[in-house]
Task: structure prediction
Amino acid sequence: MGVRVGIPRALLYYDYFLLWSTFLENMGVEIVLSQKTNKKIINNGIKCAVDDSCIPVKVFLGHVLDLTAKKVDYIFLPRYISVEPRRFMCPKLMGLPDMVKQLLPGIPPTLVVDMDARKSGGDLPVEILRLGRLFTFNPWKIRLAYKTAIAKQKKFKKGILEGLTPDQIFLEKSLSDRRQTIAEEGNIPGDKTLKIGLLGHAYNLFDNYLNMNIQQKLNEMDVQVLTSKMFTEEQMDSGLKRLEKDIFWTFGRETIGSAFYLLQNKMVHGVILLVSFACGPDSIIMDIVERAFKREGVPCLTLVLDEHSGEGGVITRLEAFIEMLKWREQRDESYLSSHGESLDCPESPV
Result:
């Protein structure tokens, strides 16, 4: 029986699962996933986390505990420091392995891999070679496994750009399958369908329990959704030209770049921001995006996610937001600011 490695279904699972699962499976490893996020996982994570942790970290801790109960041999905890030049990942992702081992002392042994774009490793990073040697001494097998994993990751990114969700890609669903599912549910967008930008990090956008299945709810309201993961690097860079300075955080670049690209190309009727409570970078991003959209008179709704978020309240806010957008479009009142005053008001503070 092969080595069983557990991968938590949280945080960077929604960005890099195919990369890691493909590599490890080619090493002869059996991949074990935690359950999808549920109330028990969140509650277990909250009990172990420090008070000022953001909700995605609390969820992650709950997933690690779920894998511990599955009696895996190892838990995979990559440390993402940088994935592109001159930018860094969130501090919680840099310190995640240490945080998990400190807060959950009874978990199985961990596999920690440092991913840092600043350290050149050629076509086979040193950390990948080190990880592979835990399972085989054949360097060519490790190299081939990594090459296969990179190819799968590129396919994953292409699917995300086309509008597929990570789970649909993991199940090898195609874009036509997604359209067929939407048609079967009776949510075929019509000519008058509103277009909404749904902006946030992947672990907020695609964890349907944490975000209370917001994308499905918007589809049921006959809304076409464009997420912040559906834009190319070039498109995000084009949006970022609006700023005087570059963005330090990779995830912040994704959110602000896609938001400003939507704004400058007038692609949506409104924008919804999904942000995590107690997230410092998110609070800054939220303020930058809200101010920019207010200046242009484009409605912007911010939904802050935490363990106390109630589905009823979220639905009420979504319905009110969508109805307001429909009212503006039907009555051709888009020249009126959604913030309560005329766009050309000289007293506007922004």
